[in-house]
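Entry 14. Ran structure prediction on the chain below.
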Amino acid sequence: MTLLSPAEQVWKPCDLRGTFPDWVSPALFRDIGSAIGTMLTRDARVVVSGDYRLSTNELKAALTDGLAQTGMTVLDAGQGPTPLAYFTAKHLKADAVLIVTASHNPPAHNGLKLMLGSAPTTPEQLQEIRRLTQMRAFRWGTGSVEKIDLRSLYMKAMLKRWRGLQGSGRRRVVIDAGNGTWSELAPVIFTDLGFEAMCLSCTVDGRFPDRSPDCARAGNLLRLSAAVRERPGAIGIAWDGDGDRAAFVDENGTYVPPDEIAILIARSALSAIETETSANRKVVVDVKFSDSVRRAVIEACGDPLLERTGHAFMRGRMVKEDALLGLDACGHYFFRELHGGDDGLFSSLFLLDQVQRSGGQLCALRRALPKTFTTPELRIPISLVSFNQAKDALHKTFPEASAVEVDGLRLTIPDGLVLVRESGTEAVVSLRFEGFYKEGFDRIQERILSALPSTTEWLRQELELPAAV
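Output, structure tokens:
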């Protein structure tokens, strides 16, 4: 397996991620800003924002300098949730939006999310940015920097959109901002909508002292689960470091897997459509999901479109297809209403609205879902097995499977599904499998343990299985 240098590893398929300052540095971000400014037209306006990581301000200032040196008009939106940056760029009709963030990655990391125009950056565009950055082939000019703040406008838009949640009593929520970007805005919005909101980790701190910025793992939400159990009737909500992902805990304090949230959101969104045209019923579905999500979309008269994992790929497909909805297995939920975008606060309110309309509880909605037998995403360190090794081994182990290679390898057999893929943001191989019934799940599990002997001990620990005799 070829090991990449930090300078190479920082460039992901559609964004940048790495540790500060060895992988991502002010010098690199200044050159990236100049490269992007060189690609855009001279009269372009660029929104620049960032999260609250300790390195963000320094990287953001360097990025802004690089843009201004090529003649760009930079609209500095300060620091805040990534969805606020998207809202700002859309409202101001900006030509690009650049967000300094490492999203759910550990505190020592930072990175860059970007959109050039109305669609996410493509791998080809990112390669051109990389080429210009490495060659330092920049256009020079005199730009400008203007401070902007659309927080109040965003808050008004959210309160207007979800005013239907008001006036139905004091519903309880526990919101866990994880010291991230929703720490300040979310408590105000929930209170103004009439919720009785208990706040956890709602103090901005770029060190993320209370929990990991990754909200997609149940183990990171134990404190939230405990708080929910102490508040009868409450629903728990958590966001990742930059606020575009959402995770949920039901009234029993139980973590709700993204598969179940995706099914509930899909059913609600599709049931609200009055027309029966297929163009209005397209739902982009992350290939990492269990097949229960695809089947649920079909049962709700939707048209599921399997797509490669990753924010840029999901949102790009949303825009291309003018899809109603996009469902991501890590907690991103995309809406046509948001011009194909995702917003952790919006998706939280969408689910709460659905619960309220049902007249019941989230745990009751969950009980009505079909029974599934599936693993969470298993992130195997590449030191144990490479993607190609895992892919080849699973191909040989399941010769009867129907194979799809949208993103990695998805194998469908009579017993269920197996998915293996290479992570675009971490040094891991992502594995997930599902049985259509309990016996099928058990058979798939044993075949996988035999197929990947270098990972057997690790997998047994992750799956909480007894040690092999």
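The chain has four domains: 6-151, 171-255, 258-367, 373-462. Will compare against last week's run tomorrow.
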